[in-house]
Every structure is written in C-alpha cells, then in structure tokens.
Amino acid sequence: MTMDSMESIATSVRDGIYSTLLPQQPTTFWGPPGHGTFADYASMKAGDNIYFFHDRELFGIGELTPVKDAVAHSNFIGASEPQTFSRAAIKPSLLYDRGNDSARYRWLCTFRPEPKFFKHGVDMDEALSAHPSAFRMLRVLWRLSFIKIDNEENAALKDVLLRANREYVTGLGGTLVASKWPAVHKRLASKLTPEHGLDVTPMLKRAAHRDFLRSEMALEAAVLQYLTQHDAEAEAVFGSWDYLSHQVAASPFKPPVWMDKVDIFGAAFIQGHAPSIDRLLVGELKKGVAGSGDVEQVMKYVDWVKDEYAHQDYSHIMAFLVAYDFDSTAVHQHAEAAMRVYTVGRRPPVSREWRGLALVRYRFDEQAGRLRFEVVAEP
Any alpha helices (H) in 97-230, and if so which ranges? Predict the structure, then answer.
C-alpha cells in the first residue's frame, strides 16, 4: 500500500486498519479508480501479508486478519454506491472515522503485525537487487495505491525486511512501530453489521445498460468478488482459486504505462502443500463483442504465464476470454489457433497439445443484481 507520510503508516499500524483515500467521491458512476480499488479489497484473504511504501522505502510486516470472518469491509453502509456522502450522513454507520475526509475512505482491511512492523524500512533499490528474479509486480509500482504480489515475490520481500531488521529478530535490539490492533479490532467488531460487507451489486447496477456493462473494470471487480467468495455459479464456470489478483504485469519490463497486463490472474495450490502450484488462471475481460484479436491477446498472456510461472508447462494453465458476445472471427480463431504444442520431460521427452482457452459470455441479471455466465466454446 502506498502511504503519503510516515505518520499515516504509524496510524495504520497502530490501529491494524488500512483504508485507501480515494481522489474524490463519485457522483453518479464509479470510474476505473473506484472499480479497481474495490477489486483490490474484494480479492483480499486472511493470511495475506501487507506492506507499506513511502518515499522509496518499504515497511512491514503485517498479516491480514479477519474481524467477524472477513478481512475487508465497507467503511460505512452504502460505501459501494457511486454517490457523494456527507460526513453527517455516514457517521451512524462509520467504522473508521478519518475526519472530514471519511466519505472518501470507502473500504478497509484489517491486519496484525507478523511478526512486527519495523521502523527500519528497506529502500526499493535494495529490495529489487536482493532477489531480482522474484520481483515482478513490485517493479511496476507506479501511480498506484495498492498492488498485490504472488507468493514468490512475497517470500522475497519478507526475507529482505527480516534481514534488514535482524537485530530485532535475533533479540539484539531494533525498533518497532507500536500497535494496539487487538483493542481496535474489538471495537470494530462491535460496530460491524451484515450491511458492512463488500457488495459489488451497486457498482454493477450503475454500470449496466439492461444486460450489458459499460465498464470493463466493473466486470473485473464482480468476477474477482465472486471467485474470492467462492460463489458457486461463478466457480462452476471458472473453477476454484486460492490466490487471485488483477492487472498483473505480463510483458518484459518497460515503463509501466506501456506494459501489458492480465485482467485476472490466479493460482490454485496443491491441496495440503501450499504454495506449490497446481493450476494457474489467466482471464481477459471485454465489456463488448470480442474478436480474433482478443483471442490472440489472451494467448499472448498464456505464453507469458507459461514462461514466468508455469516452468514451460502449459498443462498448468486455464484461460478464459469473457465478453458480452463473440463475433465469428473469435470463434474461428478459438477453434483454429487457440492451441499450443509443447514438450515436457527429458528422458524421454513427450510432446503434448494444450487447448485450455474457454470463451465465456456474460449477462447482467437486473432482477438478481448479479452477472450470469455461459460457456460459448469449451477449452
């Protein structure tokens, strides 16, 4: 999480609560920053580590900890509604009071130090040079308040911070940021109601025109929340995933504004042996009609994930292209070109064929306030 000052970090660590300050309140429609920020919170789960970034330095370590069975909450009832609220209007249901700007803190997450938050931060260059091959998302932290990193990157960052603060870890000294998280979380629990849960429905209703969504980021936020909450209807199409993220870098390093990004990326771990990876998810989302170029785009991402995460083995990857509809060129491209021939093993080498891309049509069900999915073309 990017913080504007050390005072902000100290306050967040003291309370065991992080909430993103939105640039402004929405009036009638959530733009990409709002949808994207909601998606960040929707994909959080207990046990994820949390770090703060300020003035080229990284601070940590914390662990997302549930309050009333959830690590992410709406800061006040109606927080996901794209409208402007006064502080007086939200005060009765406000969880985390940040003064006059409270209505710009729409969602929050709860965490505890793990093992502690250290006052000694690590310079970004020092972190990146310590484990150069492990850091992918950290290299593209630019004009973002939040990024999510995978298990390999998380382990590398934790290693750097622990070594930088080994005086404390080994019992020889070191300085810590004080925390009163148990008492704060207890007070938070006393205020929480079912209406404080994350709910993407208001976003979808405002983004919808009949059964069509006018925002790809709203589509992205909804799919992430459904899969994180193990929605049965969504999992019947996309499967069950232990790790989920969005807007994951998927190209060789270059200025972040020009980088390709996977809309939704996920991993399922071998049961009982996390973080060993069983399957990987690649999802490309289009609000309108997808064509052959979109099939080629998602296949490019599949190739990238094969190289970066799957150890050259396509069989670990499941890919989805989600759209309102598909033209004939997309269906033809899926049948003819959405496949790869690859080799596994050495003694003897074995050639295999991968066809793991599904085309999925979405529709917004206005009456139910949710998305419905239909598989148009099987892998």
Answer: 124-130, 151-164, 166-169, 181-191, 201-207, 216-228
